Each structure stands twice: as structure tokens, then as C-alpha cells.
Amino acid sequence: MVNEDPSTTPVHEVSLDTLVDRSRALAHRGGRQILGITGSPGAGKSTLAERIVAELGPELAVLVPMDGFHFADEVLHTLDRHARKGAHDTFDAWGYVALMRRIHDQPGAASNERDGTIYAPQFRRDLEEPIGSAIEVRADVPLVVTEGNYLLYAAQPWPHARAVVDEAWFLEPTEEQRLTQLIARHERFGRSPAEAKERSLGSDQRNAELINGTAAAADLRIRLLDQL
């Protein structure tokens, strides 16, 4: 189930500086805040999230990507889903939900006896595998940025993760730009030009069509004026 008409909400052209300022204001709102960035494969979600966290610094923000919850290749082969890697059912969605709930409640759970630090998984593109307990999330960091394809997807259990996100952005470059970035990313991580194009126009494109249908559920739809 996806939203039927994402065209009903406008796309705002914004600069990176504007988004950094908006993120900083969110971090200073008080308590734990969670910013979610979503968009189709190749949109630039990871790069934007990394830039925002780098600009704010480790005392204000930390990045926890959804990609850390990719099923391992061994599991995907067992489930006969490896050819569709990146589809919504190739993630440990309930694991991601549980982590986002913990992150949301983290500051209140910390005590003098226990600092409440959470260790989140990370996806290594050079290995094409998730690595557990790789990202330190301290209880005193006010802003957690999470990014991933299915943050606004309406099928269960994804809405449970969206429920604890304070602000959700949908990153929406032009289709030409998105495909160029996606093909370049695949080549950067070892695929031949032909393989990169086949993946981008095949399984990635099917995922993109589903994800684009979720855009209307975002708090803000954005197109960057800057080259990341």
C-alpha cells in the first residue's frame, strides 16, 4: 500500500545550507529528535545525511542508516530474495523498528549506572554486507539522522518507525540526475558499466517506482540546488 498521488505536495528547491540550518534548529528543539531522509535509489540520501551530520558535528548529530538492516547475503539466498536485494522485504524491518524505538526512548533510559549508549549496525558497500554494533549512538546526542528507502512505506511494520521520526524529508532530484548518480555508484563499488546500468534500470527501478509513491507522506519534499 502506497500513497496514490505524490504530486499533490510541492517539491521545494533548497540549498544545503538551508537544510543544515533546519537540522540544527531541530537538534536544539530539546530532548531527542529524529530526522528521517528518504527517496528513491540514487537520490543522494546517504550523501545528504552524511553532509548534515558532518556540518553539525558529533556533539549534535549522529547518522544511523536503514541500510544496516539489510539481510545478509546468506539469508537472502536462503529466502530466494537475493536477486531482489534492496526491495522492502530484503530488510529486517522489525529490527529497524525496534532500534528506532530504542533511539527515541534512549535519553530517558540512561542512568548513572548505565550510560544508555546504543550500538547500531552499519552496511558496508565494499562488502555488500551489514556489520553489527558499528555505530555508537550516545544518549547525550540530541539529533539522530536516519536515512533509507522505506521510511514512508505504508506496509507493516514500516509505519512504526515513521511514528517516532520527528521530521521526514523526501529527496527528489530529477530522474536523469538520479539515474546518473545511481549508475555511477554501482560502478564505484565494482560493477561494470553494463552491470551498473542493468541493475539501475531493473530491480532498482522497480523499487524506485514504489518509493516514489510514498513522497506525499513526507513533511518536506526537496530538490537540492547544490552538487553534493
From TrEMBL:
Signal peptide segment: none
A molecular function GO annotation: kinase activity
Transmembrane segments: none
SUPFAM superfamilies: P-loop containing nucleoside triphosphate hydrolases
Stored Gene3D superfamilies: P-loop containing nucleotide triphosphate hydrolases (3.40.50.300)
Highest taxon of source: Bacteria
InterPro entries: P-loop_NTPase
Alphabetically ordered keywords of this record: Kinase, Transferase
Pfam families recorded: MeaB
Annotated protein name in UniProt: Pantothenate kinase
Annotated source species: Leucobacter exalbidus
